[in-house]
Write a structure and sequence with these properties.
This protein has 170 residues and is of the alpha+beta class. 29% of the residues lie in helices and 36% in strands. It has one domain: 3-Layer(aba) Sandwich (Aminopeptidase). Strand 1 and strand 2 form a beta hairpin. Helix 1 crosses helix 3. The relative contact order is 0.15. The model has no long low-confidence stretch (mean pLDDT 97).
């Protein structure tokens, strides 16, 4: 376990998470805010494959968001390479029924601290589609600074959109 607050736990994925993971991930509204490599529909097979991959990668940088012992989302880090090796991209998601409850606001600051303490990084950044102001607000509350707008930098669901980039730098 990475940390726990009340009924909220951040920990490595477990094979027993697959059913709950596929249930919460299999939502078009969740998918719309994520990269296309996050499949939709999201099947139990997808969940099992993700759990295996997340736990096989070393160091472990992808974690389950667990509420009342059910996997309801995920948070992870992609560490960059070469001249960008001191920088990493943050990604996170929650099942729709948990939106608007302040969970990511509780999760993001300690997870950012965890990632910075356990990896040789000076910068963690996140990219948010411009239609997702709630995610941008979560990043701002966690101390991430708005760095800019990447105009028409993504094609999602057949539409071009801007991406907003936020970063936390030590």
């Amino acid at each position: 376990m990475i940390f726990a607050i009340d009924n909220l736990v951040i920990r490595p994925y477990r094979s027993s998470d697959a059913d709950s993971l596929s249930h919460h991930a299999n939502d078009r509204d969740v998918w719309l805010n994520l990269r296309d490599r996050f499949p939709y529909p999201y099947t139990k097979k997808d969940a099992r494959e993700w759990v295996e991959l997340a736990n096989r990668l070393q160091p472990v940088t992808n974690f389950a968001i667990v509420v009342d012992e059910k996997c309801v989302g995920g948070i992870g880090l992609a560490i960059n390479q070469d001249v960008h090796r001191k920088s990493a991209e943050l990604g996170y998601w929650l099942g729709k029924e948990y939106w608007g409850q302040g969970l990511m606001t509780k999760i993001l600051p300690p997870m950012t601290d965890y990632f910075l303490a356990h990896h040789d990084l000076v910068r963690i950044y996140a990219m948010v589609f411009d239609w997702n102001p709630a995610s941008a607000k979560v990043l701002e509350k966690a101390g991430y600074e708005f760095e800019g707008r990447l105009k028409k930098s993504a094609l999602k669901d057949g539409k071009f959109c801007d991406q907003l980039i936020y970063a936390k730098i030590i």
